[in-house]
Structures are given as structure tokens and as C-alpha cells.
Amino acid sequence: MSFEQKIKNKQAVIGVIGLGYVGLPLVLKFAEVGFKVYGFDTDKEKIENLKKGKSYISHIPGQRIKSILDRLIPTSDMDLLSKPDAIIICVPTPLTKHREPDIRFIEETTRQIAKNLRQGQLIALESTTYPGTTREILLAEFLKTGLKAGRDFFLVFSPEREDPGNTRFTTGKIPKVVGGITPACKKLGILLYQSIIEKIVPVSSVEVAESVKLLENIYRAVNIALVNELKVLFDRMDINIWEVIEAAKTKPFGFHPFYPGPGLGGHCIPIDPFYLTWKAREYDFHTNFIELAGEINAEMPYYVIQRLTEALGKNSKALPGSKILIIGIAYKKNTEDIRESPGIKIMKTLEHSGAGVDYYDPYVPQVIKSRQIEHALYSINPANKKISSYDAVVIVTDHSNIDYQTLLKHSRMIIDTRNVYKKPLKKVFRA
């Protein structure tokens, strides 16, 4: 039976490598419409949770996983990669400490697939990366097997667009861009994703598809940097940037609102633009906007600390020796995702400055020691801690389930980076 017939009859076996915020929703969608799915991940704890029908992502209920267990095979055994008819790669693409692309997860996954590659398989890369990765890394490795792209195997790039916690735009409702190495590759890639996604956007090449995701995130990074820079200026001018934005967005054309914050977080906006910056050097090109936006956004956690220091000074307090409570260390509201979180950077900087720091985040009860974290962190229970004992409270992430009025009532002062308190209040300082 051909790949096309298997997809149409839902007899194709799907494999997803990387079962995080991007991979797990894909696993669920394919299984829910009737496909058998292999879920691959090197994290054995994730595999064990899935086997038990347990979720490790807050916005994905365990019941969804339990409902597809008869069609899901969670595994860490990469030798099983010959089993799926279609393999979707959703592995991390971080930066090195020198802010250069770290594609070792793509490279290792590619080697594992090549070792098990068989005729008729389709491979789709979804991990965000620089233009040329699919052709230069994946295709080059797969061709070493002697198989031919577009005839013996099929290779596409389709950028992930998952927005964790977004209930309006879920996996099936977000349009899917697909580019193929050959026309046959693109045709089968479209067919694969059409089985779970409402709208497919075909493009002429894998390089165009790779560039689409970079443009989307660079667009956001640059515009967020713009409003962050204006926030610093307008604070100095005693103008409320949030009120300015609210008024500006009443214009029905030519303006799209972006909002300032304490810094960028997540796996996309703080990282992805620098994949293109790095690739641009190959063409003797300097990406000025991207670099400048990165500098501005990277400075925002330090601006928050500057505003905190100024506010403490009004109470004749110095930052060293002060007790500070951080509200929210997830990088975005109503999720537990702490990747590249500005809240963590603020906490680390405050600790190094000699302040005593605690955090409260209902979505993040603890943070284990990692590349970002020098020691484990644990969320306080505000019911058991006197908020008034802290010299200042800094709102970094504005989760919806936090009682901000009680926080206001018991706090000595609040540094508000998210415009939680929209009206001017004596003990609330914008940052």
C-alpha cells in the first residue's frame, strides 16, 4: 500500500520525536483522529508518565492522553524509528553560550533516523532553525544511505507554531506551512498534515518554510523591543506606555499592538532570531535590526531591577539586604513554561546583588538545578508567608489565578511590569 493510501485510510503509522510543548500536541491530534503513533523521547520520565496516561504539561489534561493509550506507543528506543511511515522531528534548538545555533539535537536525531531509514518513509522537521538546515543536514545525511529523495524517502520542513495555553488557536486550527525537498515530498507532506490541520499553506521550498518561522519571531522580537525602548523613555517622561498603546490600537488600520515587559522568554523569540543572524554571516551580511532588538530586550530585566532599586530608595532601603518577592517566574501567563524566563534572570541578578529573594508561582512549584539555575528553587505559599515582611514585590508574570488585590493590600510596595494595576496607586511603580 502506498504512503498516500495509508494516510487516507489512517493506516499509516506516525512517529513524533520530542514530546514537549510541540511534539505532545501532535501525538494527541494524530492519535485522536485514528492513527497509531510512536512517541519518541530520551526523557524516560516523560515516557513513563505517558504510559500511565499522565500529563506533564498543565494545559493538556491527562484524560486526553488516557483516551488514546490504545493507539500510542511511548518509547526511548530509537531503533524503532523504522516502524513509522512518517516521522516528525520536534527537538530543541537552543543557542550556545556564545549565542550561536546549537543544532546537536537535530544532528543526533538525523543520524538515528538515517540508521533506520527505509523506503517509503516521510520525515518532517518542525524544529525552528536557520534556512538551509533541512537540505544541508538532514538531506545530506539521508542521501548517504543510497536512497533518493522524492522517490525512496520524502523530506519536508513545516515550522511549529504551537502556542502553549492558547485555547483559541489550538494545534488543528493553526495554519501549517509546508515546504518539500521535491514536489513529491511537498505533496505527501501536505497530505500528512491535512489529516489533522484545517488549513495548509504550501511554499516553494524548505528554505522558504524555514524562513517563515524566523520572520514570524523576528517580527515579534523587533516590535517588542520597540515598545520596551519606548517604555523606558516614557517612564522618564512620566507617560504611561500602556495608556499610549491602548489609545493607539483604536486606529483600525496600520497599527498592531505589542506590549512591553520585563524581558523575553520562551523557546522562540529570545533565541530564533539569532539563528538567522548567525547564518547571515555566511553571506557577509549584518542583521542590524535583529541585533539591536536583542540588545534592548536583553536589557529589560536589568531595567526592572533599576526601577526596583529606585523604589526601595524612596523608603531609604538599599537593594543589598532587602527581601524581595517575585510574582510569577514562568515566561508567560497561565503556563508552567520557564524556558529563558526573565523572572529567573531577575532572581539570579537580585541574589548576586545581595538581596534575599523568594518567588511565588502557582504553576511552577519548584525549579530544579539546571543550565539556568545554580540551585533548586521552591515557590512559597503566600497563605503561610507574610507578604508584608517583604520590602518589595515584583510582578514578573501576571497569572490570572493570583489575588492581586490581596497582594496590593499587604505589600509594602509593588513593582508592576505587566500593568496589572492600571490606575495610578501610591505604592505601585511601573517597570
What would you say this structure looks like, in words?
By secondary structure, the chain is α/β, with parallel strands linked by helices. It folds into two domains: 3-204, NAD(P)-binding Rossmann-like Domain (Rossmann fold, 3-Layer(aba) Sandwich); 228-430, NAD(P)-binding Rossmann-like Domain (Rossmann fold), CATH 3.40.50.720. Helix content is 37%, strand content 13%. It is built from 13 helices and 15 strands. The strands form three sheets. An eight-stranded mixed β-sheet has the order 3-2-1-4-5-6-7-8, with helices on both faces. Strands 10-9-13-14-15 form a five-stranded parallel β-sheet, covered by helices on one side. The chain has a two-stranded antiparallel ribbon with strand order 11-12. Helix 5 (104-116) packs parallel to helix 6 (133-143), helix 8 packs parallel to helix 11 (288-314) and helix 11 packs across helix 12 (342-352). The longest helix is centred in the middle third of the chain and has 31 residues, at 206-236. It is globular. The termini are far apart.
